[in-house]
Amino acid sequence: MDISGPAQASNGFRVNGKIVKDKHGNDMVQFQPASEYLPLIDEVCKILIESTKVIKGARVEHNKFCVTVHFRRVKEEHWKALAEKVDNALKDFPTLNLTHGRKVLEIRPAIAWDKGKAVDFLLSSLGFADSNDVLPVYIGDDRTDEDAFRVLNDMKHACSILVTSVPKNTKATLSLREPAEVMEFLRRLVQWKKTGMDRCITAQSGRFLYN
User: Fold this and answer.
1) Gap between the Cα atoms of 47 and 52, Å rounded
2) pTM across the whole model
């Protein structure tokens, strides 16, 4: 929902990206497809903070363009009561949607936008949409990352990686077990770039092997 970065061009989806200058005078693309929803997000966040404070362990997080209700620390017998409070809070906000993630409930604008469209937008904005010498790599651990995995899987050259320690149904083509492995993968990727083909990264049975 909130994208910025270096760009050569911008051809957004619902809203065109805006080219601005950063503090060094470089072109940046700024893209906020849901900027008109900011007042609603602020309002529903305040309501949820007040209504969920009676449920021990519940935490409401304001993420600018969405509100996340965390229930990882809520006892399972209170999950239903928490969900009801979130549903009740949303009755007066028909332009907001409720989605589910890993032990979270997320309230977001009801627009046709997801992480897959964000990937498309970034590649287009950077001028890489039709490039044959760019390899997009997407690493994620949440259900909402599946939209991005699908987009990358439709590309000729791309890498979609799910971070999980247990088998899961996913559109990702490869996996890493934990954040430490992600760090090691990125470190070796940079090293491979610097040293050339004397080090290679291969994939076998959905796992990364480093040779």
Assistant:
1) 9
2) 0.70
109, amino acid identity: P
Alpha-carbon distance of 54 to 42, in angstroms, equals 20
Phi, then psi, of 207 in degrees rounded to 5: -120, 150
Residue 95 corresponds to which amino acid? T
Region at 77 (left for phi over 0; alpha for psi -120 to 50; beta for the rest): alpha
* 2 within 8 A of 62, measured Cβ to Cβ: no
- Distances in whole angstroms, Cα of residue 19 to Cα of each of 15, 34, 124, 128, 130: 13, 17, 13, 17, 21
Report yes or no: 43 and 92 within 8 Å, Cβ to Cβ. Answer: no
Q: What is the pLDDT along the chain (211 residues), one digit of tens a residue?
A: 888 877 665 555 555 677 788 888 888 778 888 989 999 999 999 999 999 999 999 999 999 999 999 999 999 999 999 999 999 999 999 999 998 878 999 999 999 899 999 999 888 877 788 788 888 999 999 888 999 999 999 998 899 999 999 999 999 999 999 999 999 999 998 988 777 655 445 544 444 444 3
